[in-house]
Model the fold of this input.
Amino acid sequence: MELVETRNPGEQEFHQAVRGVLDDVVEGGLDDELERLGVLERLVEPDRAISFRVTWQDDEGQVRVNRAHRVQFNNTLGPYKGGLRFAPSVNPSVLKFLGFEQTLKNALTRLPMGGAKGGADLDPKQLSNDEMMRFCQALMNELHRHIGEDVDVPAGDIGVSEREISYLFGQYKRLRNRYAGVLTGKGLAWGGSAGRVEATGYGAAYFTTEMLEHAGEQLDGKRCAISGAGNVSIYCAQKLLELGATVISLSDSDGTIHDPEGLDADKLAWVKQLKLERRGRIAEYADEYEADYLEGETPWSLDCELAFPCATQNELSSEDAETLIANDCLAVIEGANMPIDADAMRLLRSEGVLIGPAKAANAGGVAVSGLEQSQNAQRMSWGPEEVDRQLREIMRTVHAECVEWGESGDGSVDYARGANLASFDRVSKAMLAYGAV
Ligand code: NDP
Done:
């Protein structure tokens, strides 16, 4: 940790992510050979990080400049793989934490994927559709040099969905004159995979089902609070509803809607239209369905049995954790990456609240991205049932690995520990095999 802090001064998110893993990995002592070959030191240092200027023109003809990055963290298990994020908060610390986590998450899926993350310090809400097209084209003017189907395969993340992936791929194709699977999250009509849009949210719901069953509980009838109203939140809500749970909240960066009766399929279809097509604000839901709107608030004060933070990092604090514990919340499932801050995580774990850690619970998205790569390589496309079958199987396996590595003598499971140990085992063994590279 000292090395990480000295070498990456001020990069709090990165420190937090590394500490979360190292605490578990070094607890039982490290194998001598792992130490001699500097596996930990290598694992916490990205293979390379590329930063570049993105110059583009807005609708008024004004030239604008943003900064973009691609952190190629670790390609031990396969080509670099991880999303692109467009958000004002994007900086090297955030991308390093995401790239580090991605390396371990991808290992858990057992698919041949290394870890990476990228993005730009852009607020997509401020851009028109045409401006977004020009921005994506300008970003690809540099990014195309660093990606490739056997090198690095970016996907979406916050602020980057099918629209942005389409613009990025269109420009890649124009620049390189190649039609290759260099991005995932593509449209169904041009190389995308069935089930990719739904995969992260559905996967989180499948993981929750497994966790609850293992604890002798069931999802049916459970009251679920979800944060966010983007890709992960919406499809997580959809699958939870299908599995018989009650979803009482969604949110965005302005506030939370609370619908005590619960969302249903019609309400959710309306939210999809609002957030994914009209790009509106979740507050409109409260007017449409006479629900409560908690301006500027997160959903964690609501009485729920399951909490699904699905918006962004560090969105659930120790005060939130105290409220959830007081409300007898059974489990917190991380749809987003590192949404539970370090103090809240300690508190929830010490009180025995089940945690579905991000690198396991939200691995469904990258897993189906991996399946998209396989389909592209075969020049085939599989139907939605086949993709869903494979997604379920992968989530079941990820869950089983967490149990194998995280179960204590009394039968309780520390899923965060299990996910850290299982993924570290897979990556570190391959790193040892390659020697000191
Ligand atoms: P989207 O951009 O589709 O949605 C993000 C949602 O979170 C929006 O409702 C957004 O509100 C809200 N949000 C974003 N930033 C903040 C903030 N600072 N405070 C409060 N709310 C915020 O992103 P995704 O659903 O794709 O991603 C959400 C999380 O899931 C991220 O942590 C991402 O890394 C993780 N993830 C995503 C995967 C995927 O396949 N997409 C895969 C695995 C993990 P607003 O509209 O106001 O910005």
